[in-house]
Specification:
alpha+beta, Uridine Diphospho-n-acetylenolpyruvylglucosamine Reductase, domain 3, Enolase-like, domain 1, 3 domains, five-stranded antiparallel sheet, four-stranded antiparallel sheet, 34% helix
């Protein structure tokens, strides 16, 4: 690990001023579970590390209105898993957060850090995508909100502009009954990166959304506008055709976690299973 300066601002204004002053020479520390690895293997070489854990405006909190739920940038995976409102309205996100690393990592890693790292296999992203999450950003120039699907640009690339910090992630509350399931496969049980991950959501109105991870340069979300996938009376053949159109947006590669052929085959299998579970859950009320 190369030497660097360390800053610990206590307000968002201080953090933004530090980031503005140091520019590309600075990097942000939230949970640090990814950053410490990068510092250790020297793939990231900042001159200044800005620790956000003591910034008052983004201290761990999950708050809500009658329209949405707000998860601040310093909120850990464990907080997300244990929050009653998240569990009630966004259960697939709870399941996704539970797969991130070990218990010790989840106690430290933040939800915001998981999306900012922008790994194609980021576990929480498929669930956040189907739930239509948005990302709130701040800089010395002001604030803005970006849809998560637009925030993720490519492998380890986001729409963050110079001097910007993610302050929170926002999830709109449901306006109708729905069921969602997160699923993934890995090479082994326990701590491992996903070979494939997905989240399926079926709404009572007949709309179906899928989000996929680890099968392209970035996670992506697609929707079935025909209503075929959510129709319990539709044939399996018709559903496979509709699923095939959604899966066609994937571009899996071969790597140590699986071949492109394996990933392509499992996409359909996993999508079928998740869809079936969501429909049964809706029918059960």
């Amino acid at each position: 690990m190369l030497p660097f300066s360390y800053a610990r601002p206590s307000t968002l204004a201080e953090a933004l001023a530090l980031l503005e002053r140091n520019g590309d020479r600075a990097t942000l520390l939230a949970g640090g579970t990814d950053l410490v690895v990068e510092l250790r293997n020297r793939s990231r070489r900042p001159e200044v590390v800005i620790d956000l854990k003591h910034v008052a405006e983004i201290q761990p909190a999950i708050t809500g209105t009658d329209r949405s739920l707000m998860i601040t940038a310093a909120t850990s995976m464990t907080h997300v898993q244990e929050n009653d409102r998240v569990r009630a309205y966004f259960p697939a996100l709870v399941d996704a957060a539970a797969t991130v690393g070990s218990i010790q990592i989840r106690n430290r890693a933040t939800l915001a850090g998981n999306i900012c790292h922008a790994s194609p296999a980021a576990d929480t992203v498929p669930a956040l995508l189907v739930y239509n999450a948005t990302v709130n950003l701040a800089s010395t120039r002001g604030t803005r909100t970006v849809k998560l699907e637009e925030f993720l640009v490519g492998p380890r690339q986001t729409a963050l502009q110079g001097g910007e910090i993610v302050t929170s992630i926002e999830l709109p509350l449901p306006r109708e009954r729905r069921a969602a399931q997160f699923a993934r496969i890995t090479r082994r049980r326990g701590v491992d990166l996903a070979t494939i991950s997905l989240c399926c959501m079926v709404e009572a109105s007949g709309r179906t959304r899928f989000a996929y991870g680890a099968v392209g340069p970035r996670p992506f979300v697609v929707a079935d506008a025909t209503g075929v996938l959510a129709d319990p009376s539709a044939s399996e053949g018709a559903k496979d055709v509709a699923l095939g159109e959604l899966i066609a947006h994937a571009s899996p590669i071969s790597d140590v976690r699986g071949s492109s052929e394996y990933r392509a085959a499992m996409l359909l299998v996993m999508s079928r299973r998740a869809l079936r579970w969501c429909i049964e859950r809706l029918q059960a009320g």
